[in-house]
Amino acid sequence: MNQNPHLRPSKTAVLLLNLGTPSAPTPKAVRAYLKEFLSDPRVVEIPRFIWWFILNGIILPIRSSASAKKYASIWLPQLGSPLMHYSRLQAKELQEKFANEGHTVLVDLAMRYGKPSTQEVLENLKAEGMERLLLLPLYPQYSATTTASSFDEVFQVLRTWRNQPELRLVKHYHDNPAYIAALRDQVLSSWDKDGRPDFAGGDRLVMSFHGLPKRNLMKGDPYHCECLKTGRLLGEALGLDSNQCIVTFQSRFGKAEWLKPYTAPTLEKLAKEGCQRVDVFCPGFPADCLETLEEIAMEARESFLERGGKDYRYIPCLNSNPKWIEALSDIAYTHLLGWPLGSESPEELAKRHERAEFVKNQS
After folding, report:
1. Which of 23, 161, 213, 214 has the most crowded CB, counting CB atoms within 10 A?
2. What is the count of structural domains for the chain?
3. How far apart, in whole angstroms, are the C-alpha atoms of residue 138 and residue 94?
4. Is 76 domain-assigned?
5. Any known ligand binding at 103?
6. 345 vs 254, which has greater pLDDT?
7. Helix, strand or coil for residue 333?
């Protein structure tokens, strides 16, 4: 016999939202993931009829096998997808931080594409008594292609619910002081381990963000400006001037112009000009993934060294850095202000039970 939903303890939940990952580094799994991802009109703003033929006739048949090999090169033994592993770890550690501070807050992770799906996770939270929901995207810089798309998917699920939760959204936190401090700590930790670059001698810190078509910027997407601000704040926090650190954009796809400067050509240019060492960091990616581990840590390294560079250092993403978990907590607490962060007391639950019984007897 199902418990009356009105008599369950009312809970607050924080849902971390991330992009997604194939379930396995195989052509079949990658094809399924790419099809879902590239079919999103928020991601590819090309007329659907034209794009359907391009996607299914050219991109999926060609890219699925090639991408599967790339995923296989970064797949973690026993752990699987790095993005999934670190995203789940962030959710787990955020949940534990709430618990250690005396709060009963549900924390979970949903992927926009693939598993765990937004619908699956929301239904699970609902079953646990979730009545208040904070959406916290793992995209520090807002873009319609990521943040808005993830919000769209949540709205699509909630529109089918009769009894919807209270809802709050974290749009962005590209300039949040705790986030910037976590980025600074990650870079300094790497330098403590591997040595600080010789900036006076021409070494550089390259901050590579995921790219977008330039038309997205022209249509009003704030992503480009937010990436530049994150880069500027991080450079200032590290005590660097504008000549010592460079913001670039990676993962360009297709023939259209994307946000510039492009990461790979910038690294090649630095090597040709005599730059001996570059440290490359990806501040917009809270968790390592294909774009950071294969594209930046492997491909970009090879390109830089082949063109005369001597020392290439990849700085891992925030992953499970304690400062990053503190930042996530800080961001969450700011947006949870005024909401109860624990289950109802026995007295409060008893009062709600009395109210529900009264309504039942009046009907």
Report:
1. 213
2. 2
3. 13
4. no
5. no
6. 254
7. helix
